[in-house]
Amino acid sequence: MPSSPRFETILFDIAEGVATITLNRPDRLNALTTQMSKAMLAALKTCARDDHIRCVVITGAGRGFSAGQDLTELAHTPDGWTVGDHLRHGYNRLILAMHDLEKPIIAAVNGVAAGAGLGVALAADMRIASEKASFVPAFISIGLAPDSGVSWHLQRLAGPARAFELLATGRKVKAEEALTMGLVNQVVPAEALEESVNALARQLAQGPTRGIGLTKRALNRAATVSLAEALDYEAQMQDIAIRTQDHREGVQAFLEKRPPQFTGA
Ligand code: LHQ
Prior knowledge:
The protein is an alpha/beta fold. Helices cover 45% and strands 16% of the residues. The chain has two domains: 10-205, 2-enoyl-CoA Hydratase, Chain A, domain 1, CATH 3.90.226.10; 209-255, Lyase 2-enoyl-coa Hydratase, Chain  A, domain 2 (Orthogonal Bundle).
């Protein structure tokens, strides 16, 4: 098993095929700094490279998931550096890295997810929320438009009318409402969050990782193309999936009437 790389503003732990990235500035509700988004990107690169990692969990230390951009840091941007530069070099790369990672990502939303923190939560493939979680667009409350992929993800998950309402008013959505909106997969009591997420993450980490990665690629592609193109892309993904060891093992296990032992290969 590989050793876990260390970063400063996040914790990065690998166990039983699951890498857990914990945003770790609890006194600031894990508000995101440049250093932190760089560390998250580096951690995601490790997740992409390391074949032992077959599922990723992102969560927050303390009572928040992430309050989004650290607003005190914005006052110290380098000369000539625009907010657009900040986004292009930081959050845009991070959100795309999550989208492109061919491994499942679960956001364990322990508390408030606001602004770019909401962007990170929505860019995960699944969200399990504590009853104490909430989702706060935050951008409009400080006169801003959405960033960090929130315009893209929120309307796909909740529909355009709800996305507009939330982004134009900044209204806080609590966990139960987030469930009815389709923003989260499941809501669990706060004390059960870690265990629920671990059980799901371990299950996914023992799955046919290439097949799950190809599923993610197919869904990502299907979100933006015609049915004819989606069908063609599905056929391409299946050509790859059919050659995996895990596909052979799945069929063999079915024929032998035993549970499959997937290795991720
Ligand atoms: C914070 C923050 C924070 C610093 C709480 N920064 N300290 C990217 C790039 C460039 C341009 C701008 O946009 C972006 C993307 C974005 O993310 S924009 C949105 C940025 N985020 C916000 O505007 C959210 C600001 N925070 C809040 O509205 C509230 O804190 C929420 C609703 C998240 C939580 O409220 P409470 O549970 O009542 O907690 P609190 O407000 O008491 O916060 C606890 C502490 O954390 C507090 O510090 P203190 O010293 O008083 O204990 C806050 O100042 C600090 N904090 N968010 N983003």
